[in-house]
Every structure is written in structure tokens, then in C-alpha cells.
Design a protein that fits this description.
Strand order of the largest sheet: 1-2-3-7-9
Strand content: 25-35%
Largest sheet: 5 strands, mixed
Distance between the termini: 72 Å
Order of helices and strands: HHEEEEEEHEEEHHH
Structural class: alpha/beta
Number of domains: 1
Number of helices: 6
Radius of gyration: 21 Å
Helix content: 40-55%
Amino acid sequence: MGLFTISFQLIIKSWYLLAPIVFLIIFKSAWFRGLSGEFIISATTRLFLNKDKYHIVENVMLYTENGPIQIDHIIVSIYGVFVVNKKNLKGWIFGNKTQKIWTQDINDHKYKFQNPLHQNYKHIEALPSLLGLDKQHIHSLVVFLGDCMFKTEMPDNVIHDEGYIRFIKSKKQPVISEPCVSEILKIIERSQAVPSFNTRSEYVKNVCQILSVKSIY
């Protein structure tokens, strides 16, 4: 048996031993949770919403007159534009619409995070002028994914898992014409900033400014 054959067999055996550990690390990583969250929102939207009426744009980076903004998902329809902020979190979630900081509790370990409705505030403020819409036709929507549970009463637009589909379908009054929907999708495509270090640095600065702005939600 040649040296090459022995080395190849050792590599194969090592891979069989290490593969479960590698997959477990990947499965538990923030990167995988984010990727799976993107897939869940995308797949659920396409499965339960009429694709001819609802158009989803994912991982959107828009360059506005006030700087770049990053949005997890935008769903454009004749019933309005839905700005989706997704959260992949475990444990108990505490918060309300007016608190700047919410709390995540995992096995009695508490972690603080920014009110996701406040995060969406700047997005909602920037989109009307960019898309030529009334603010009332743009809906803020926060979707929590994963093994988490709300321990305080949440606003109607803060939803766990696929319940966000019911929220979207609850908007039954057409407010945007079909031609306008097509134009909005074109505007979003044209307005997306090219991802770069500079645009992402600018985005981080803009996020920091949101903390001092009082939310209207």
C-alpha cells in the first residue's frame, strides 16, 4: 500500500470523526442562524403569499440622501410596502414599543439589545421620499425567529415565526397601483448601494444616531 493511499485514508477517517463537530459549530453559529433566517422569511413569503401580488427583496442596502440603510427584507404589494426586521434569538424576550432597550433572558443570563422597532424607524423615515409614497403606506414589521418566547405583551407588528404572514394579509385595502408596484421595485433596484467598507461604515454611524431619535411607533 502506497504512502499516498495511506495518507488519503487517514484524511477520510479524520473527516468522518471531525465532520459532526464541524457541522455542530456551523449550525450553532450566528452566521448560520442569520442564513437560515433569510431562508425562512424568503421561503415562507413565497409559499404563503401570492407571488403575483407580493414581491420580496432580500438583504437590501439602499443609499439615501441621509446615507446608506440596510434592510433585511422589503415586501412590495398593492397593499403597501412592508419593511421587515428579523431577529434570530433564543430564550425569553422582554420589551415594549416605547423602550429603547429590550432584554433577552437565556437561563437567567440577561442580554440587552436595541428595540427593533426603533431600528426600523430610520428605514420608515427614509423610504417615503425615496419611493414616492405616503408614510402610512409603509408598514414596519419585526419578525422573531427561533426558540424564543415573548414574556411581555408585544405590538401587533412584532411577531414570532410565520405569524407575520397573518399581519401582512390583514392589510386588505389596495393603496398602491400595479404600475406603481413595478416602479417601486425598479427604484429599489436602482437605489441599492454597492456593498463596500465605506458604505457599511457609514451605515454603522447612522445606526448609532437612531438611538437618540424618539420612535413614532
